[in-house]
Amino acid sequence: MRNRKYKLLPYEIIEKAAVGEPEAVNTVIQNYIGYIKYLSYFQGSINDNIQDYLKACLMEAYPSFALIDDE
């Protein structure tokens, strides 16, 4: 098994974000904020419109997360 540079989010956080719990949604966004800033870097600075768009796309995708129950 390879070592991961970044830790994965706990399943419980993803599960709560999928149902729309605000604190869990914020945790997921904060987990990906570095990548979002990297993608929104345009012509030498961070473009706020692109950053907001990427956050909105991430929040829009939460309800479609395919979660597997451990039952």
Compact summary:
The protein is mainly alpha-helical.
Give an account of the 3D structure.
- The protein is mostly helical and 71 residues long.
- It has one domain.
- The chain is 56% helix and 6% strand.
- The protein contains 3 helices and 2 strands; from the N terminus they run H-H-E-E-H.
- A hairpin with a 2-residue loop joins strand 1 and strand 2.
- Helix 2 packs across helix 3.
- The longest helix is centred in the middle third of the chain and has 18 residues, at 22-39.
What is the makeup of the main sheet?
A: 2 strands, antiparallel
Number of helices: 3
- As for the number of domains, it is 1
* Span of the ends, CA to CA: 26 Å
Shape: globular
Order of helices and strands: HHEEH
Number of strands: 2
Average per-residue pLDDT, rounded, comes to: 84
Largest sheet: spatial strand order: 1-2
Q: Which structural class best describes the helix and strand composition? A: mainly alpha
Regions with pLDDT < 50 over 5+ consecutive residues? Answer: none
Portion in helices: 55-70%
Beta-strand residue percentage: 5-15%
- Determine Rg (CA atoms, Å): 14 Å
Pfam families: HTH_16
Domain Helix-turn-helix conjugative transposon-like: 11-65
Protein name: Helix-turn-helix conjugative transposon-like domain-containing protein
Summarize the helices and strands and which ones pair or pack.
Layout: H1 11-18, H2 22-39, E1 41-42, E2 45-46, H3 48-61
Antiparallel strand pairs: 1-2
Helix pairs in contact: 1-2, 2-3
